[in-house]
Design a protein that fits this description.
Helix content: 40-55%
Structural class: alpha/beta
Protein name: 2-hydroxyacyl-CoA dehydratase family protein
Strand content: 5-15%
Radius of gyration: 20 Å
CATH topology of one domain: Rossmann fold
Organism: Pelagibacterium flavum
Distance between the termini: 33 Å
Length: 372
């Protein structure tokens, strides 16, 4: 039996509440807020500048009517982009110092393009924050390093232009907090199961890193119960559905979560006090779909799945996916060669409904019945 004291319970509740509130969890903080859209921004640099990096692509709409910007958004645009743009046009981010979009993230680039056009037309509300597109090349060569150095300097210039500090002086302290958070997340991945690990990890997208580390350290309960016999991997589109995770946990423990809202965030570059090392780790991130050569992405997934000793890998895709789906045939074949099961759960809504979850259960059950 796992015993939980009041301190652990309150910390866990605070993490749950932050995840549920999304960027609303940052309201009332006494630090400037810098929005982040997409995976691959150097968030520690933003923290070092005196701001709190807050992810802005997890919010919800209030459900009231059709908004003017909806008339411009094409039907194939990602759900998270549509929600962000509606909230952006309604002034949801007027309290932010700025918003950084990661060009390598397809949804983030689309959001940036629509948002900047809305601003250009003069239709954005008063107090709309400045927008910045962070553009990094994912390769290793001297010209690429020079280009990437320029992009990081442009980000630093953007941060100082919106009234923040030059991050150099605060970088060591911000890195120390990122290291604390990473160590706490590693403990969570070994002690929390089902949806809890996903929820507690992603709660940090809306909290200052030191606050996230504090809550994780307070909430962690060492679970001495035996692990589930089946070890699961999860790949595909970004998934942050507690209901879906709970359904998967009915079959085994997710020990390798490689979708964008899984264990690949925060990236390892966040723990590096050297800008040059940070740059190289971001540029060489094998979990970026735009890594060069592209074969590195699939190999990184295979290596992580094998290292985690997965028995079965689950794949799921957003309705608007136009990137990861191309990986499925090759990934499935490579896993089969390694005697690792693979189940393609197919396309799903941004928030998977009961019908999709029940279908996923059936597909997983059928796959397990046919495994030797």
């Amino acid at each position: 039996m796992v015993m939980i004291d009041d301190r652990q319970m309150l910390a866990g509740q605070a993490l749950d509440a932050a995840f549920e509130a999304a960027d609303g969890a940052a309201a009332g903080l006494d630090h400037p807020l810098v929005g982040i859209f997409g995976h691959g921004a150097p968030e520690t640099l933003i923290s070092a500048s005196g701001a709190v990096p807050v992810h802005v692509n997890f919010g919800r709409l209030d459900g009231s009517g059709v908004r003017a910007i909806d008339q411009l958004i094409e039907p194939f645009v990602d759900h998270e982009v549509r929600i962000f743009l509606n909230r952006f046009a309604a002034g949801a981010f007027t309290g932010f110092a700025g918003i950084v979009f990661v060009r390598d993230d397809a949804a983030a680039l689309t959001a940036y393009q629509y948002a900047t056009e809305w601003v250009r037309q003069g239709r954005a509300p008063r107090g709309t924050p400045p927008l910045f597109l962070f553009n990094l090349v994912h390769a290793a060569s001297d010209p690429v390093r020079t280009f990437n150095d320029i992009q990081i300097e442009k980000l630093v210039s953007f941060l100082t232009a919106i009234g923040l500090d030059d991050p150099e002086a605060g970088l060591a302290g911000a890195t120390a907090q990122a290291v604390r958070r990473q160590r706490a997340l590693e403990r969570v991945s070994h002690s929390a199961r089902g949806a809890r690990a996903m929820v507690w990890r992603n709660a940090g997208r809306f909290l200052a890193p030191e606050r996230h580390a504090d809550l994780l350290e307070a909430a962690i309960v060492e679970d001495a119960s035996p692990p589930a016999p089946l070890r699961l991997g999860l790949v595909g589109s970004g998934l942050a559905s507690a209901d879906a995770y709970a359904a998967f946990a009915g079959f085994g423990d997710i020990v390798c979560d490689l979708q964008p809202f899984g264990q690949i965030w925060p990236g390892p570059w966040e723990c590096e006090p050297s800008r040059a090392t940070m740059r190289d780790l971001m540029a060489g991130d094998p979990f970026c779909l735009r890594i060069s050569p592209p074969q590195r992405h699939r190999q990184a997934m295979l290596d992580a799945i094998e290292a985690a000793k997965c028995d079965l890998v689950l794949c799921q895709l957003a309705q608007t996916d136009d990137t990861f789906g191309w990986e499925i045939p090759g990934l499935a074949k490579a896993l089969q060669a390694r005697d690792i099961g693979f189940v393609n759960l197919g396309f799903r809504d941004a928030v998977p409904g009961p019908a999709w979850i029940e279908r996923a259960r059936k597909l997983i059950g059928q796959a397990l019945e046919t495994r030797p």
